[in-house]
Amino acid sequence: MTDTTLDSENGAAPRRPDHDTARDGNPAAPGGGRTVAEAVTADLVARLARGVTAAPGAATARTRAPLTGEVLAELPLSTPDDVEDAYRRARAAQPAWAALPVRRRTAVLLRFHDLLLARQDEALDLVQAETGKARIHAFEEVLAVAGAARHYGRAAAGYLRDRRRGGAIPVLTHTVEARRPKGVVGQISPWNYPLELFAGDALPALAAGNAVVTKPDTQTALTALWARELIVEAGLPADLWQIVVGDGPVVGPAVVDGADYVSFTGSTRTGRDVAQRAAARLVGASLELGGKNAMLVLADADLDRAAEGAVRACFSSAGQLCISIERLLVHRSVADAFLERFTARVRAMRLGGGLAYGADMGSLVSGRQLETTTRHVAEAVEKGATVLAGGRARPDLGPLFHEPTVLDGVEESMAVCTEETFGPVVSVYRFDTEDEAVERANATPYGLNSSVWTRDTRRGRAVAARLRTGTVNVNEAYAAAYGSSGAPMGGMGDSGLGRRHGAEGILRYTEAQTVATQRLLPIAPSLGMDDERFAALLTRSLRAMKALRLR
Ligand code: NAD
What we know:
Elements: E1 2-3, H1 36-39, H2 42-49, E2 60-64, E3 71-76, H3 80-99, H4 102-118, H5 120-131, H6 135-160, E4 163-165, E5 173-181, E6 184-188, H7 196-207, E7 211-215, H8 221-233, E8 241-243, H9 248-258, E9 261-265, H10 268-280, E10 284-288, E11 293-297, H11 303-315, E12 325-331, H12 332-347, H13 367-382, E13 386-389, E14 405-408, H14 415-418, E15 425-431, H15 434-442, E16 449-453, H16 457-466, E17 471-474, H17 479-482, E18 496-497, H18 502-507, E19 510-518, H19 531-547
Parallel strand pairs: 1-2, 6-7, 6-9, 7-8, 9-10, 11-12, 11-16, 12-15, 14-15, 16-17
Antiparallel strand pairs: 2-3, 4-5, 5-19, 10-18, 13-14
Helix pairs in contact: 3-9, 4-6, 4-8, 5-6, 5-8, 6-7, 11-12
The chain binds nicotinamide-adenine-dinucleotide (NAD).
């Protein structure tokens, strides 16, 4: 058995930064709700663990609850042979599913939507227990998955329907573009949004007629197993969606090797490996990767709204959100007024870990995340940055808590300036002109999300057009774009390839197939016509079609 989550460093008191202006800040949230042990019972774990595709007697991995450090689950580990078995089962189940009318398939998504809303407390408990995030941030996942289920439940038939295209010869050629499922989609997902990144990406794949083999992160496999159980209850054939669990470098490549298409979400580094492996097999892949997202506060912004938005932008899920803001660019003329409002709100944030609403931020997920966070803060402070709020780990609240932290005076030589922290840390930069703000925002190899605050929304959209990110939110942090299920979401540059949501989010799981039916006459000399007369006839036809604007 291996222990996948909390290593010995997690409980160690991290080093304190020199600047500590928030000694009295970040009160603990009131407790409440069930304990982790009450919510995630041994019976529940045993039932969910049976959903893992793994041979009897498999080795196991133990996970722990980030909030408390207590043991959460012991899960069977799939081997590469088990992954092959998962693909065999999924492949056998897929043709019958694909043969159903689209609306029979999407009816399952719509029932899943209703079940998820009705049973959301079970999901919220599991997400909190496995990730340590605050309940309000777990709820964002329910919201996003319900949005995807409803969107594709209603819109998939339209996205997938056959479309008439111009034929080789008008009237004589009847041409249709059809969408066929890829077959079996291999999905690899991370721990940070375990419900959303697991279910949200699989639902359109299933709606398009595919089977799916998913490897969630082991730390958050219970949430994935629960969501799969729920959609089976909603009517999905059980074999159609297989879940394998195991170490990324062992099981991940096997998932890529069996797939007809790969849907990967995770770090840019792993994404590159996955892309190369998929490319070697000539299999397509969508890659949703990291970011170093910027928020621009223009001189005419509503500072109260911007400060409130910045709290959500930077600290949702303790900053362990791919689209969260790590760089805060503020116009110099309003920087002091904005920072006064923002840091006051940050200091007042309630940290806590009960399985109930009330906390503004929960804990980090793992020792690795806490280590990166404390290292980035400590290094920045050592090199001269100032802590405006937060700055400390909070072992008094739980092994993996860290205060929401605002840094000023951050420079290029500091890791926090350019590397993704993926923790509750934001750096403040001042700018004088819009050009400077845009240049600075774009000065990163990443290109995932950005946020622009201004009272002039037309100007906000004009700035958006200059930003090299897959989504731009005007007067919102990230939820406006992410919640727009009908519009594509994804990254430019090192933030990835391909898009989730909208038409692209489902069509990526299909092959385009052109079916052209020729009627009455062939596209060749016929009825005794020689080649020269045929060529002359077609030339005249092309001219006539141009005159009649037929093609
Ligand atoms: P990670 O790349 O380490 O792991 C992601 C998944 O890949 C896990 O399931 C892991 O087990 C698996 N994996 C690891 N090695 C593998 C390999 N060699 N082959 C195949 N699979 C392998 O990422 P992480 O640190 O767990 O997740 C955080 C990262 O994910 C951050 O960079 C974050 O920005 C990014 N992310 C991006 C999005 C997005 O939509 N763009 C969403 C969430 C998270």
